[in-house]
Amino acid sequence: MSIRIGIMGYGNLGRGVECAVKHNPDMEVTAVFTRRDPQSLHPLTSTAAVYPAAEAAQHKDEVDVLILCGGSATDLPEQTPEYVKYFNVVDSFDTHKRIPEHFANVNKAAEETSHIGIISVGWDPGMFSLNRMYANAILPGGHDYTFWGKGVSQGHSDAIRRIDGVKDAKQYTIPVPEALEAVRSGKNPDLTTREKHTRECFVVCEEGADQARIEQEIKTMKNYFDEYDTTVHFISQEELDRDHSGIPHGGFVIRTGSTGWEDENSHVIEYSLKLDSNPEFTSSVICAYARAAWKMAQEGQKGCRTVFDVPPAYLSALSGEELRRTLL
Amino acid sequence: MSIRIGIMGYGNLGRGVECAVKHNPDMEVTAVFTRRDPQSLHPLTSTAAVYPAAEAAQHKDEVDVLILCGGSATDLPEQTPEYVKYFNVVDSFDTHKRIPEHFANVNKAAEETSHIGIISVGWDPGMFSLNRMYANAILPGGHDYTFWGKGVSQGHSDAIRRIDGVKDAKQYTIPVPEALEAVRSGKNPDLTTREKHTRECFVVCEEGADQARIEQEIKTMKNYFDEYDTTVHFISQEELDRDHSGIPHGGFVIRTGSTGWEDENSHVIEYSLKLDSNPEFTSSVICAYARAAWKMAQEGQKGCRTVFDVPPAYLSALSGEELRRTLL
Questions:
Q1: Which residues is B145 bridged to in the sheet?
Q2: How do beta strands B197-205 and B166-175 pair?
Q3: How confident is the model at residue A277 (pLDDT cuts 50, 70, 90)?
Q4: Alpha-carbon radius of gyration of chain B
Q5: N or C: which end of chain A has fewer CB within 10 A?
Q6: Which of A64, A60, A49, A62 is nearest to A10 (CA)?
Q7: Which residues of chain B fall short of a pLDDT of 50?
Q8: For position B1, what pLDDT does the model report?
Q9: Per-residue pLDDT averaged across A258-279, rounded?
Q10: d(C-alpha A219, C-alpha A299), whole Å
Q11: Do A261 and B44 touch (CB under 8 A)?
């Protein structure tokens, strides 16, 4: 019997979940919940039912794990504590500094209703967090570095699109190669924001817009660009659509540290991702944790969890015996 | 109160454990057990008692977790199932194909006596296994690649030293850069043993030994060298001591796989280690798992575990709250 997956919110992430489930024979998408008109929505999975989001609770018996595909700004802080009352849930809440508060809210509702809620799943937070944590436990007293990219930042692309005269835009975050090399060499450099990443923008203007002003507005935009070296390219909509339609991303988590009685030996632990599709990879991580949520619920566990709490084997469709024989 | 660590066997790994414990303020080494004359052994930790290995069981109340630092060929298959009767234990058993049998033996003794035994801890098996497993769960249907090095293989160095006329030797395993690049590019190449790694040997001969014969014997040695492109350098003992006294190692675990409804997007997950000291890094991983063993034992858990079974947070000295706030 497969694990029945429900999808709340059918955007890039929701479609990514469908694709990930297709790669996992022990899972199936049984329901998609949407705030749009259900009639207008045609999931890739022909057997999945489409329901209004408002009626989700009525369908709790059709779903083993509900995957919440909303945004972290306003959707998930409301949705995760609400839906965990009816379902085991997994979300990808990624506002790092609000995680403790989100955890507390989800945990309370999940404990009261005996469900499992795994929050902040994906790659950062998610796999990057896990690698930071493992590396910290192995090399206490070391130095942590996280680099993002090369990849598309949706937030920065959106910020450019809000500028007057801009029709469309895509922004890439790029790690500075020299900074990466200095970190890998074990030099433990202190790096400023500017020294770690550069930003590259591809911008389509409205006809007759003032490119010089737009470039200036981008480069001086507070919190988004002012602390970075930013390059701006003006291109046509055709070029943007042809060359920049993907959503690649990735990055590097590096920890350096020393061992030995007098700290005489150095070590470098590095984890990196190179992703063609940020939402599809995130969804693939989420699906593995949906399996874990289901196993934990089957055991009678309840409450909120993060990637730090889940035994790795729970993510796998293989048995403990198979894992030890083939992957240990 | 700190976690009291016992060390069974005081070689490179045992000394590495002492150094790792020094970096973890919540742990202390209270006892070292040895098959040598205890009087002849002087641990780096001045407060640690030294006892004969044969009397270990008598000192079970002085130790919370016993770390077994023997070899996988003959020591650990005997020692781990035996000592887990008296202690919570961690070992670094690394004969991959005998892991299922070792697990069963340790599990039986651990369950009968209500202890925790975590086996096969280190980096391969260990951190590399974990990364293979996580990546497999995230990208089912992908391809796995593990490369080792650049690093010293003790087994291959020993094999060279057994050749007639050889006084001393050190062997390095080196990943082939072109193979690594082909894998990272997502080409999913089928690589032969010869295409993945080369072997480089630094050999000190007895006076008057036949170098041509020795080189030939090395390069044709079954299972060790015959399937590799091997380079042999003859050097003096002084050069070997000066330039090749370290025990560096490391390697790469890479998984490539695709996502999307039609597998249209590719992804590369890479984990790598660059280690100045193989035994000290292994010991550092072991110490983090000793903390986990202690937490599991405190909860009343019993039986055999591997890195696949241990929730990541158990490795850390930080609380769940601190972990979520600082590393998620």
A1: B254
A2: antiparallel
A3: very high
A4: 22
A5: N
A6: A49
A7: none
A8: 78
A9: 97
A10: 53
A11: yes
